[in-house]
Amino acid sequence: MSDGMTFTTRTNLSGRTALVTGAAAGIGRATSTILAEQGASHLVLVDLDAEQLGPLQHEIDALGVKATPAAIDAADWGAVQTLVSSIGAIDILVNAAGNIASSPFETLELSEWQATIDSHLKSCFVTARLLAPSMVKREYGRIVNVASIAGKRGGGFLGKTAYAAAKAGVDGLTKVIARELAPHGIRVNAVDPGLTDTRRLIPLRADPEVWRRCLSAVPLGREAQPSEIAGAIVWLASDASSYVTGETMNVDGGVAME
Questions:
Q1: Is residue 67 part of a domain?
Q2: Which of 22, 163, 233, 253 is catalytic?
């Protein structure tokens, strides 16, 4: 049964306020741009890289959308709490922050393990936990976490023990939050990218044979552009995906197909 809404209407984010972590580069930056293009009225851009937030703010402003940069650690409870208090209600949360950890298990140090868990998993918990009360009160909210196929496959092209474990945690956290918040009208999903054209691929591209092996593992035969991952994120954040929650969506060119 049709409700009379077009697909274009469902993907329009007019009047929505979104907070994006890891906004300064890669998938986070691409997501911020598409959210603005889809009509979001206010973007809160969170990243530790203050220098890169400036150009992004100008880019978003040029699209006629208000942009508020925040050079804070998304895993820092106090900093995020202060930001949320100053901004007010957030409709859409996109967690795209995270480092890369490539140490194998035999040489992994506790410091790298903890930093990686904090960067990926703790940041998702902190932001979602601090934004959820307002979403529950308004019975509206969209949370999209960026995980990785490394979390489903036990490692990936770059991410090894700490990274894969953290991303598996993000997928698990996504599901439990989705189940608990669903009665309040809040949808929570994750995207699991594969090989994506960000600065993290520089070491892989440095060795032609390694790069050839990476591409040969992808059925589509190429890496993704950040905008392709961002497109899935924005779809999950829009009403076009209104019956989707608790999903951990592979956006990986077919690497992890079942």
A1: yes
A2: 163
Residue 256 in any domain: the answer is no
Residue 205 lies in a domain: yes
Residue 176, Cβ neighbours under 10 Å: how many? 11
The residues near 174 (Cβ < 8 Å, ≥ 6 apart) are: 124, 143, 145, 147, 188, 189, 190, 246, 248
Q: Is 1 among the domain residues?
A: no
Which pTM value belongs to this model? Answer: 0.95
Question: What is the per-residue burial (b if ≥16 Cβ within 10 Å, else e) of 22-53?
Answer: bbbbbbbbbbbbbbbebbbebbbbbbbeeebb
Residue 23 CA, distance from chain mean position: 9
Rounded to 5°, the CA angle 169-173-175 comes to 120
The residue segments making up the domain with residue 93 are 7-249
For the chain, how many structural domains are there in total? Answer: 1
CATH for 110: 3.40.50.720
Residue 243 falls in the annotated catalytic set: no
What are the per-10-residue average pLDDT scores of the chain (258 residues)? 76 96 97 97 97 96 97 98 96 94 91 96 98 98 97 82 96 98 98 92 88 93 96 98 98 90
* Locus of tokens 């940041």: 123
